[in-house]
Amino acid sequence: AALTQAIVDLKLSPYVLMLVLGLVYVVLGCILDGFSIVVMTLPIALPMAVASGFDPIWFGIYLILMVELSQITPPVGFNLFVIQGLTDKSIGEIAVYALPFFFLMVLTTVIITVFPEIVLYLPRLMSG
Fold first, then answer.
1. Statement: the pTM of the whole predicted model exceeds 0.70
2. Contact of 80 with 68, CB cutoff 8 Å
3. Which pLDDT tens digit goes with each residue over 31-44?
4. CA–CA dist 63, 46 (Å, integer)
């Protein structure tokens, strides 16, 4: 709670906060699996996102995108190892093939950050 409050007190722009969190998730994805990243960061990151004005449902979708993005970043990128086991190609070659998908996921993350209604439309419609 103290770390969350200290970061909230910095009064960062919401977009800068999401950029920093995104970078943290990509770096953590280089050394940890996705489940560990979620368990370690959610209690800190969710209150920061909500304090910055982001919807919790939106943040959950953002978090899933960032974790999936981190799973295709070497050296640990677990999804790269799964594909390597299926194809018998080198991890470097698979990483090169995954690069366009990495950039598409970054673009998707930017789009949902700038236009959060894209991901909130259906949940709001269903909740009445």
1. yes
2. no
3. 888 899 999 999 99
4. 9
